[in-house]
Amino acid sequence: MDYLKLVDEIINRGKVKLDELETYLVKNKSIEIGVFKGELDRYSVSESGGLSLRGTVDGKMGYSYTEKLDESSIDMLIDQAYENGKYIDVTDGDVIFEGSTDYKKLNLYCDRLATVPIEEKIEFTKNIEKYAYSLDDRVVAVQTCVYEEFEQERILKNTKGLELIDKQNLAIAYVSLVVKDKEDTQTGIGYKVFTDLTTVDYKDIAKEAVEEAISMLGATSIKTGNYTTVIKNKVFADLLQAFSSIFSADSAQKGLSLLKDKIDEEIASPIFNLVDNPLFEEGFASSSFDDEGTSTKYKRLIDKGVLKTLLHNWRTAKKDGIESTGNASRPSYKSTLTISPSNFYVENGDDSFDDILNGIDHGVYITSLAGLHSGLNPVSGDFSLSAHGFEILNGKIHRPINQITIAGNFFSLLKNIELIANDLKFGTPGSGYFGSPSIKIKFLSIAGE
Amino acid sequence: MLEKKLIEDVLDAALSKGGDFAEIFVEDKTNGNIKLVGGLIENNISGRDFGVGIRILDKYNSVYAYTNDATDENLIKVAKAAAAALNSSKVDLKLNLMKANTSNNNSILKSLKDIPMTDKIELLRRGYEAAKNYDSVISQVVVGYMEEEQNILIANTDGLLVDDRRVRTRYYVDSVASKDGEMQRGYYAPGASMGFEFYDKVNVEDIAKEASRIAKTMIYADYCPSGVMPVIIDNEFGGVLFHEACGHALEAAFVSKGTSAFADKLGQLVASPLVTAIDDGTIPNGWGTTNIDDEGTPTQRNVLIEDGVLKSYLIDKLNGRRMGMKSTGSARRQSYKFAPTSRMNNTYIDAGKSTLDEMISNTERGLYAKKLGGGSVNPATGDFNFAVMEGYIVENGKIIKPVRGATLIGKGTKVLELIDMVGNNLKLGQGMCGASSGTIPANVGQPSIRVKALTVGGRKED
Questions:
Q1: Which of B366, B384, B377, B386 is nearest to B451 (CA)?
Q2: Which pLDDT band, with edges at 50, 70 and 90, does B461 fall under?
Q3: What is the ipTM of this complex?
Q4: Are residues A335 and A296 in the same domain?
Q5: Same domain for A71 and A143?
Q6: Does residue A182 sit within a domain?
Q7: Is B457 in contact with A447 (Cβ distance < 8 A)?
């Protein structure tokens, strides 16, 4: 199937009904390898894709999409986009963009990943499981041990003469396991995201999971109260991800973010810098153009505690009389245009992790949060989340704790940041790639016994 | 959707390098989504999902491949590529696919594609007006309309050939209340396996007012205190407690690998004798109802726990092999992009004898969780958490005041034993459940229940 020809045909035929139109074509390939007790227990391969059409009539934008990528879908796409657009009330909404003057060249596709023989990838995954079992007798079950590889090609073309193509790939190795000591059961996870298999040691992934699970054995709750709290790097990254919609100009303009009208105000501790960097080479949400075709750029959203900008696409930018920040996003070809971060992270501070613990007589170190999709409210900033971690005593990790919740408000938390470590770490990529160093908070409300 | 001859050829190619079972899943689905923000229709998108998934089983191991190019030559190519993962010899098939008849649990009266767009838009505008005009503290309202029709065909080397049509409708209202620089949300989103006749059963104004009522209540609420206390969880979406705390751990995916807290406990007392829990994929027009599961097995009513005793797990074919047990019609998947696995359909704690009033009047000091948000669970440890969307403090048998920002945590195996009152007001609520085979519609449900002691994670004033 010649997809470019299909796209051209849609654009040519669509012009009859629609004033301006754009096609957004995504092609995906994936491989998944799952291992259980030394056997290849799950193996999955796919090639798929979809095409979305959006087009305007009198400034009203309608959307349609299909996964049936052939000639038979063309009329349906055009008719539905035309029909759907008729009912839109917003006429100063989405635009079809003519393109930026220049785009950074990024190398997001690693040939080596695709050429490593599948047998090696299977062996690699089996090794993670085998090594995990060998590390400690208390490892009773490896629940999930997988290697996943993704490849995505994006083709954006419109009636304003824009034609952009990019292609990227990445792989994730992930293990989750259960350890047991008498009646005490704990779990741990380890993962790595990469594009070059030869740079990854399977032992590190297994070790991370086993150490996390073993370290939690014997955990009990802690007395309810306010504690000086250190939040682990990747956990703060998860929290940042869960609250990331507050930085969307779309949320702000709709009155769904408390950051509305806060530009140039101090909203965080003066040591806090927050960055969105789509050009970050080690990032897995990098791209030289966003899903509206705008060239992307590095920006500090929060500079020394002061809010400098929100994330924009062209619709929100025009409303505020500024330029798009290059954060237009289509989570999928099935979605309408929205806004999302790229590589989004808190910049490293000056202190080592140990230095941060040093000054704490009695506190809590949070190493895991659960319920991030339900236990927090980006609109109010309130959160109450199930957590586990460690008690800190006299500047040292003292004992594991679980069955606790941490509660607070994200906006107050940002102001209560006392110290930032220099151990920046990223989570797993999704709609954005989020990172943070470990962070010390003056106090957080913790519920336990 | 595909010619019988082609299906047979694909299954034949799938077993060309060994394996003992092959299956093809064909999906053709239309979707429509309309969203209104602040009184204006902002997004309107419709489209078509289409693809084919091919699965090969070899004892306990599985191979899965999918594509959305359903041409003859590509499907054979994909089947052969999947087969290449197995390295043994060809299995000779004598296939005689027989079209199976299924019962129809979801009768559809008003086909969605016959309804003019203007009628759908009108529903959104009505919901907006009702939500916005509920109270002056309501500062923003988002209303959404969702419809889908999924047509699937499943065939396998056991000779099964079956199809199913799943029509689903859902409507949501998300209201925001603002006061003194603070914001709170209220959300309500009923849905059903129904066509447009759903809107003859529900009144969109009622849905809208409910969302605004929650937002308004919460903007005037104090923060919830922390501690261990009795918690009364109201009916309908309160059933997410059972769903998260126990339901997931009863899925064969975890049980078969011995990583569930409920593994090897069939026949044992795992809950308070007041608790009977059921997963029923056949409830007429239920949000999680289908005629067949995503392996083609007819859905059924599964009693999971009866009077506190564990009776059954939720089982799919592959995990059933490991467990030596038959499928319970519980294999589900979001789409052709996912291999099926054991999941919940419509899961609920069955009605008991108490009333909500009795529970409140018998509680000296505790929390009344009227509406729950979502939650999650670690099936290995049983640790669960879920958010209280609308809560109240109960003192001396009376509801005292609304409180916000609470999370309930505990262990699934423990919480079931701690249920000391079960109400007579069973009601189901609609949710989307995410797990390894994707995000699927599922009903949760229960009557009002009381849990003797749960950890409530709240927040004292800063």
A1: B366
A2: very low
A3: 0.91
A4: yes
A5: yes
A6: yes
A7: yes
| Closest by CA position to B143, among listed B121, B110, B165 | B121
Please report, as a single letter, which amino acid is at residue B349: I
Q: Give the integer Cα–Cα distance in Å for A54 and B45.
A: 9
C-alpha span between B241 and B412 (Å, rounded): 9
Task: With CB atoms and an 8 Å threshold, state whether B339 touches A42.
Answer: yes
Which residues in chain B have Cβ-Cβ distances shorter than 8 Å to A444? none
Query: In this structure, are A198 and A309 located in the same domain?
Result: no
- Cα dist. B253→A146, A394, B230, B353 in Å? 15, 44, 32, 34
pLDDT-based confidence at residue B460 (cuts at 50, 70, 90): low
Does A395 share its domain with A418?
yes
pLDDT single digits (tens) A65-86: 999 999 999 999 999 999 999 9
pLDDT tens digits, B186-239: 999 999 999 999 999 999 999 999 999 999 999 999 999 988 999 999 999 999
Say yes or no for a CB contact (<8 Å) between B407 and A405: yes
Residue A438 in any domain: the answer is yes
Residue labelled with tokens 């959307």: A63
Distance of CA A61 to the CA centre of its chain: 28
Between B61, B117, B457, which is nearest A384 by CB?
B457
Parallel, antiparallel or unpaired: strands B61-67 and A39-57: parallel
Tokens encoding A240: 């940042």
CB contacts, 8 Å: B62 with chain A? 41-43
CATH (domain of A38)? 3.30.2290.10
A317, A380: one domain: yes
Inside any domain, residue A220? no
Q: Whole-angstrom Cα distance, residue B13 to residue A346? A: 51
Return mean pLDDT, chain A: 95
> A148 with A47, same domain?
yes
| Tens digit of each residue's pLDDT (9 = 90 or more) over A291-334 | 999 999 999 999 999 999 999 999 999 999 999 999 999 999 99
The β-bridge relationship of strands A225-231 and A362-370 is: parallel
**Does residue A332 form part of some domain?**
yes
Parent domain of A320: 225-447
Q: Which among A22, A35, A43, A415 is the top mutation candidate for probing chain B, defined by the most B β-carbons within 10 Å of its own β-carbon?
A: A43
Query: CA distances (Å), B382 to each of A183, A401, B243, B247, B446, in order?
Result: 13, 16, 12, 11, 20
How many residues does the structure list for chain A?
A: 449
Residues of chain A found within 8 Å of residue B30, distances taken between Cβ atoms = none
Same domain flag for A49 and A116: yes
Q: Are A30 and A37 a contacting pair, CB within 8 Å? A: no
Distance to chain A for B403, nearest Cα, Å: 13
B299 Cβ contact partners less than 8 Å away, ≥ 6 residues apart: B105, B281, B282, B289, B290, B291, B292, B293, B329, B330, B345
Distance CA A264, CA A305 (A): 9
**Number of domains forming the structure of chain A:** 2
CB A230 within 8 A of CB A242: no
The last residue of a domain, from among A215, A248, A277: A215
- Here the tokens at position B372 are 């729950």
